[in-house]
Amino acid sequence: MSIIKTATFAAGCLLASQVMAAQPVAEIVSADEVDWGYLNPLRGDASPGAADLWGDRTKDGPTGMLVKFNAGFSSPPHIHNITYKGIVIEGLMHNDDPDAAEMWLPTGSYWKQPAGENHITAANAQNNLIYLEIDSGPYLVMPSAQAFDNGERPLNLHRDNMVWENNHDSHRLLADGVESTFLWGSTDKAQLNGSLVKLPSGFEGEIVTSANEFKAIVIQGKIAYQDSQTNMGKALSAGSYFGSAGEYHHLFSVADSDEVILYIRTNDTYTIR
């Protein structure tokens, strides 16, 4: 091969590799693939289990993780160095001031725990699993004596108190039977926000997004996910995660016998159709 042809071939390979590198790809993590450790390693087996879905809870950055609690778990009063958000995937959870009456939150419920706020966390079912999200890290557990007021206020939102929009109320929802409810953040462009989305049994469609941060966690039910780039399929049960950065079409379907709830964290608009 001549020098000119070799150079042309090499340049073509480089350009192709750059195009491939720039092509958006999906992150897909099923619940049965995660690596479990301890939420509070200092307590060992007395600690809830924890597994990162995205990010790294031990470092200074945002993270989304699964946390599981044994039946009858009740923590001592404590605080955290950072604010976190929790969504119940399975079981019954209570998170409040140490002297507060128990309010058990079932699947699909949401709470926010401010940094520095003294509280306890308890579980009241045989199996208890939540999705826990932080915007900065690392995630630390600290004694109540170090409590402080960071200006935020806690929130416990039972699923029965949520207000849902359908495709007649929201421009994001183009498919019949799909509903959503806003949980936190701002819908202004480039601002992070979190919402829940209900997908009816038998749904078959896609989420279209161009956000540079799009993350979705299956809170209830199961979806058959199909990667629009590789055409590979994967069954994603409750506790699973898929996400993308850049323009992407997330294709999936819901079984006729199921109803699915997704939690979506993003910093741009998306459409479900």
TrEMBL record:
InterPro entries reported for this sequence: DUF4437 (IPR028013), RmlC-like_jellyroll (IPR014710), RmlC_Cupin_sf (IPR011051)
Keyword Signal: yes
Signal peptide (UniProt feature, chain positions): 1-21
Transmembrane segments: none
Keyword field contains DNA damage: no
Top-level taxon of the source organism: Bacteria
A Pfam family of this chain: DUF4437
SUPFAM superfamilies xref list: RmlC-like cupins (SSF51182)
Keywords attached to this entry: Signal
Protein name listed in UniProt: DUF4437 domain-containing protein
Taxonomic source organism: Methylophaga sulfidovorans
Phylogenetic lineage: Bacteria, Pseudomonadati, Pseudomonadota, Gammaproteobacteria, Thiotrichales
